[in-house]
Amino acid sequence: SPGISNSALAEAAERRTRQTTPQLSAAQLAAEHERRQKFRRLVDPGIARPNPKDKAMSSLKTLLTISENLLREPNNEKFQQFKPTNTVIKRELVDRKGALEFAIELGFKPEVKNFQPYYIFHKRHIEDLKIGAAILKDYIATETIKEERIARAKKNEKETHEAAMEKVKLAYMDDRKAKLLRDEIEKEQRAGRAA
């Protein structure tokens, strides 16, 4: 536009940027970093070390599903609570070391409704829920990549081993054929000398 100077445009863009991205203070950044670290420690060593790898991953995926459901639909009452007596919840969270502690850190607190135990999410912990879900997602993605890499390495190792075995087998068969051929030639030579 010919009527607006470049500096005025730049200032307007800067003002808009300042309004849309709130700057966190050093103390706020430190507090958020501490919360992230707490969640990381709850995952590993909290859940990952005391449980078998497949069971730990299963529990982490259950926690991620609960978190993502609640973040996607924060007002859905079904996602705001879970019963510790539910078979899946009992197996994945209650019976696994560290998993229920993680759920509590996400913002689920134990309460009793109509003589039934529940873990109910309190909305003031929404930031903890977001951080916890992000940590879970990162950890699961990292572990999945590691597992794929290990599986690929094992497959390559197996293929290499099989190729080496096949090479040895072929060399052995070639040696046997060569030996039979030498024996046949010697037999003919002996027969020729005898005749």
Q: Strands, helices and their partners?
A:
Blueprint: H1 6-20, H2 26-43, H3 53-72, E1 81-82, H4 87-94, H5 99-106, E2 108-113, E3 116-121, H6 126-194
Antiparallel strand pairs: 1-3, 2-3
Helix pairs in contact: 2-6, 3-4, 3-5, 3-6
Category from helices, strands and their pairing = mainly alpha
| CATH topology-level fold name of the domain at 25-152 | Methane Monooxygenase Hydroxylase, Chain G, domain 1
First-to-last CA distance: 113 Å
User: Main sheet?
Assistant: 3 strands, antiparallel
Domain PUB: 53-130
Pfam family, one: PUB
Organism: Pholiota conissans
Region (Disordered): 1-31
Structure, briefly:
This is PUB domain-containing protein. With 195 residues, this protein is mainly alpha-helical.
Polypeptide structure, described:
- It is a single chain.
- The protein has 195 residues and is mostly helical.
- It has a domain at 25-152: Up-down Bundle (Methane Monooxygenase Hydroxylase, Chain G, domain 1).
- Helices cover 71% and strands 7% of the residues.
- It contains 6 helices and 3 strands, in the order αααβααββα.
- It has helices at residues 6-20, 26-43, 53-72, 87-94, 99-106, 126-194, and strands spanning 81-82, 108-113, 116-121.
- It has a 3-stranded antiparallel β-sheet.
- Helix 2 (26-43) crosses helix 6 and helix 3 packs across helix 4 (87-94).
- The radius of gyration is 33 Å and the shape is elongated.
- The mean pLDDT is 80.
